[in-house]
Amino acid sequence: MTFIPLTRLPWRNTIANHYALPNHWIAPASLTRRINAWRLWLADKPSGHWLLCHQQPLEFCAALAALWESDRVAVLPADNRPETLALLLEKVDGTLPDDPGELESITPFAHPEALDPTATAVVLYTSGSTGEPVHLTKRFNQLDAELTAHAKLWPLADSGVISQVSHQHIYGLLTGVLHPLCTGTPFCGDECRYPEGLFARLQEAGAAGLKPVIVSSPAQLSRLPEHLPWSETPRPTRVFSSGAPLALEHAQHTERLLQAPVIEIYGSTESGGIAQRRQTQGTVWQALPGVELAFFDDCLRLRSPFLETPQHWWHQPDRVVPTKDGFELLGRADRLVKIAGKRVSLNHVERVLAAAEEVIEARCVDLGRTDGRMGVVVALYDAFIPHQHDTRHDLVQRMRAHLSHHLEPIAIPRYWRFVDALPSNAQGKLDRALINRLFADLDNHKIPRWLGEQRPGADSCLLTLEVPERLIFLEGHFDEYPLVPGVVMVQWAIECANDCFAELGEFQGIERLKFQRVLQPGARFTLQLTRRDDGIAFTIESHEGRHCAGQIRLQASHGGKHG
Amino acid sequence: MSETCNLTLELKRLIIDTLELEDINPSDIDPNAPLFGEGLGLDSIDALELGLALQKQYGIKLDSEAEETRRHFASLASLQALVEARRDN
Question: Residues A314-358: pLDDT tens digits?
C-alpha cells in the first residue's frame, strides 16, 4: 500500500482492495460515490469556507474531499454544540447539511490532477480547555508533511484503523482519518468510543483479515475494562494516545489488556505533532521525523514543516529537560495563577497532590471566583473515595496537611471534587463545560454535586453525585440530623433525566416510589436513570445500600418534535 | 442556654458561609480548636473576609493587622467572646 499525499487526491487514486468490510467500516476506494454526491450538492453553492461537522467518518471524509476538490476550505468546529456552531456561522460561507442526498447520475465529476500545496485545507479550533477556543489554519503542505512522518514511523500495510477520538481535531483528523485515506487503509470511527464498540470493531477487523490499529486517548485507555475478553480479539499493531497526558499506570494497563504497544503522540493544534514515545519502554520523548528541537531555559522550541511558518522557531509553552535522544516533559510552563497577589503554579500543586498515596492524578482549576480560590479535581484510587461527610472531611484535612508542607496556605485549593477518573469530553479533555458542571453546586444550592456520569446506552445513565453540605433543602430539618427530603430526591431524578434524555415531557405521576434509607449531607451516591416508554425509572444508591427508587410518568408535550 | 448556643451556631454558619467552607458542617468546628493554621486551616485572606463579615453582621470594627485581632480569631470561643462583648445589635 503506497502513501499518496493529499495534494495528489488519494481518494481518487486508491485501488479497491478485496476486504469484505462490515457496516461500520469505510474503504477509501468506495468513497467516490459519496464524494460525487457532495460535489453535486456543492455545484451551485458559493465558494469559500464551509462549516463541516459530521460525526460519521464516511460522510465527513466524503464531504471533506468534495470541498477540497472544488477549491473550498473546510472549517471544523471543536464540537457540535449549538452555541459553538452559532458563533462560527457568521465566519463561514455556508454549512454542509447532514446528507447531500443521493446522486442521480453516477457519472464521475471532473477533479483536478493535484491540489495547490500552499492553499488552506482546514480551519481548526482548539478545545478551549485553558480559555477561549482559538482558530488555526492548516495548509495542504503542513498536513502532507505530518502525514508523511506518520507513514514513515507507523506504516499501515494490511491494517484497519479504529478511531475512538473526534476527527474534528488535528490528532483524530490526521491519525484516524487522513492517514488511512492516504494509504487506502480501511478505517472506522463510528460507535467505538466505548469499550464494547471497540471490542466489536476489533473482532470485525480480525474477521476481515485486517491488523487493527487503535487511535485513542487517555480518557478511554484509563477506563478500559478488565471484564471484556480482550484475548479473543486480534492483537492491535499499536494503540495511539494523545490529547492529554497518559498516566504510566494506564499505559501499562492498556498494554496488558490489549497486548499491544501504546504510542503517545505529543503536540498541540498549533504545533502539530512534536514527539512520540512508548511510555512502558522509557519516559523520553523522541522528535517526529522532520522536527528540529532546541532548549532554552527549561522551555521547548521547535521548527518543523508541520508549523504555519516552518522556518521560524515555535515556542511550545511546556517545560522540559533535554536528554541525550530527546526530552522529558515537566508540564506546562504557563499555568500560573495569581491568588491574593501571589503567583501559584497549578502544575506544582498538581505534582504535590499526585505524590499523595491516595491520588492517581489531580487537576487544579482557576474558577474565576471573586475570592480567587482554586478548585481541584482529584482522581483517587477506589479504596480512598470518600462515601460520607466524615470520610470526605478527613480526606480534605489530610490533603490540606500534605499540601501545607510544600505550599503557602493561600495556594491550597479550597474546593475539592473527588472522582474515580477525571471526567473528559470527546477529545479526552477535562474542558471548561465539565469543570463548570463539577463546581456548579458552589453557586446553586439546590442541586446535587455532579462528579461524573456513564452512558452505557442511549436509554440509560448512571450519575455519580454527592449531597452538598450547603444544600438549601437541608434547612428546616433537625440541625443534629439533617437529611435530604424525599421530594428533593425525586426532583433531582427528574432534573437529571431532563439533562440526559431529550424531550421527556411533562410530569404525570409517580409509581412504585420507595424510600428505604435517609440520605445525609456529604453522602456520595449514584443515580441510575433508565428511560421507559412512559417516562423514567430511577434508583438512588450509595455504599450503605438503596435510598430511594421509583418510576416517574412523563408525557411528551405535543408538537415538540419536528417532522 | 439557648442564646449562647444560638450564637455559637450562628457564628459557625457565618464562618462556613463567608469562607465557602463547603466540606465543613457546624458540628465539625470545635469551639476551642484554632481557626487558623492547623485546625480549620484558615489563612490571612480568610481573616480579612471574616473581619468584613463581623463588621457587616455585628458592627464590630477590627484592625486586621493588630495583634489583638489575632487573639480574637484564635478560636471560635474567643471570637464568640468578642461578639458578645462588642456587638451593637
Answer: 998 888 999 989 999 886 666 777 776 677 888 889 989 999 999
pLDDT in tens, A197-216: 899 999 999 999 999 999 99
Query: Is B10 a domain residue?
Result: yes
Angle at A491 between CA A489 and CA A497, to 5 degrees: 105
Q: Tell me if the pTM is above 0.90.
A: no
Q: Which grid cell is B43?
A: 489563612
With CB atoms and an 8 Å threshold, state whether A469 touches B20: no
In a domain, B80, yes or no: yes
Whether residue B22 and residue A470 make contact (CB cut-off 8 A), yes or no, is: yes
Structural domains counted in chain B: 1
- Residue A272's CB: how many other CB atoms inside 10 A? 27
ipTM value > 0.85: no
**Domains of chain A, CATH where assigned:** 6-10+23-331 (3.40.50.12780), 335-425 (3.30.300.30), 439-563 (3.10.129.10)
Of A396, A410, A522, the CB nearest to B45: A410
B24/A373 Cβ within 8 A: no
Q: B79 in a domain, yes or no?
A: yes
pLDDT in tens, B52-76: 888 888 888 776 566 777 788 888 9
The residue to which cell 460525487 is assigned: A36
Write out the residue range of the structural domain in which residue B72 sits: 2-22+34-86
Chain B residue numbers touching A412 (CB-CB < 8 A): 41, 43
| CA A18 to the chain's CA centroid | 34
Quote the minimal CA–CA distance from B23 to chain A in Å.
Answer: 6
Joined together, the cell numbers standing for residue A289 give: 521525523
Predicted confidence (pLDDT) per residue in A261-284, tens digit = 999 999 988 899 999 999 999 999
Mean pLDDT of A251-259: 96
Is the model's pLDDT at A395 over the cut of 60? yes
d(CA A309, CA A239): 31
Three-state SS at A288: coil
Extract the C-alpha cell encoding B54: 463581623
- B25 and A479 within 8 Å at the Cβ level: the answer is no
Quick check: is B72 in a domain?
yes
Residue A228 CB-density burial (10 A; 0-12 exposed, 13-18 middle, 19+ buried) = middle
